[in-house]
């Protein structure tokens, strides 16, 4: 599998992604596969298509924060597609996976730039590992988390 190391400096590679060792990266994720990158673009587009650049970057950053946490799966793709079961009910971590929007979107150049910023360590979510639209969820678990910031239609929390 081809790996792409993400950093704020280096030579530009496919899709404008920087190829360099992770030592210079502030994201602290290590190598990011092309497959992980693809799904991070897709979920960011599906979740934050109508949000500001800052909101898009925050969505991507919150997903990366999960990957860095021992409480969540260790890869971007596993984190995005994680489904947990509780009392016989399946809970999808991201609604575009549940409703299949993740497969239907085409990431814009701005979305890719926002994902790149998050991979390079930019985190407007202020360390959040969850986000939600209060007008679209009644999930009490996510609503019980400590709010870090509100950006556009999303509440970010940890």
| Major β-sheet strand ordering | 7-9-8
Counting H and I runs of at least 4 residues, what is the number of helices? 6
Global mean pLDDT: 84
Number of strands: 9
**Cα radius of gyration in angstroms:** 15 Å
Portion in helices:
25-40%
Quote the distance from N terminus to C terminus. Answer: 32 Å
Order of helices and strands: EEEEHHHEEHHEHEE
State the major sheet. 3 strands, antiparallel
Helix/strand structural class: alpha+beta
Shape: globular
Low-pLDDT residue intervals, each spanning 5 or more residues: 1-26
Strand content: 15-25%
Description:
This protein has 158 residues and is of the alpha+beta class. Helices cover 35% and strands 18% of the residues. The chain is built from six helices and nine strands. The protein has helices at 34-48, 53-68, 76-80, 95-98, 109-119, 140-143, and strands at residues 3-4, 11-12, 18-19, 32-33, 83-86, 89-92, 130-132, 147-151, 154-157. A three-stranded antiparallel beta sheet has the order 7-9-8, covered by helices on one side. It has a two-stranded antiparallel sheet with strand order 1-4. The chain has a two-stranded antiparallel ribbon with strand order 2-3. Helix 1 packs across helix 2 (53-68). The protein is globular, with a radius of gyration of 15 Å.
């Amino acid at each position: 599998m081809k790996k792409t190391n993400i950093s704020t400096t280096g030579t530009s590679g496919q899709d404008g992604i920087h190829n360099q060792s992770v030592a210079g990266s502030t994201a602290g994720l290590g190598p990011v596969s092309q497959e992980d990158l693809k799904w991070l673009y897709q979920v960011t587009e599906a979740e934050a298509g109508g949000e500001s650049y800052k909101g898009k970057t925050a969505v991507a950053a919150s997903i990366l924060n999960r990957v860095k946490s021992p409480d969540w799966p260790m890869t971007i793709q596993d984190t995005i597609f994680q489904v947990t079961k509780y009392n016989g009910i399946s809970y999808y971590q991201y609604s575009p996976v549940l409703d299949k929007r993740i497969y239907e979107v085409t990431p814009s150049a701005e979305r890719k730039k926002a994902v790149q910023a998050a991979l390079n360590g930019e985190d407007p979510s202020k360390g959040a590992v969850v986000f939600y639209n209060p007008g679209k969820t009644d999930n009490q678990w996510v609503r019980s988390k400590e709010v870090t910031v509100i950006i556009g239609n999303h509440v970010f929390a940890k």
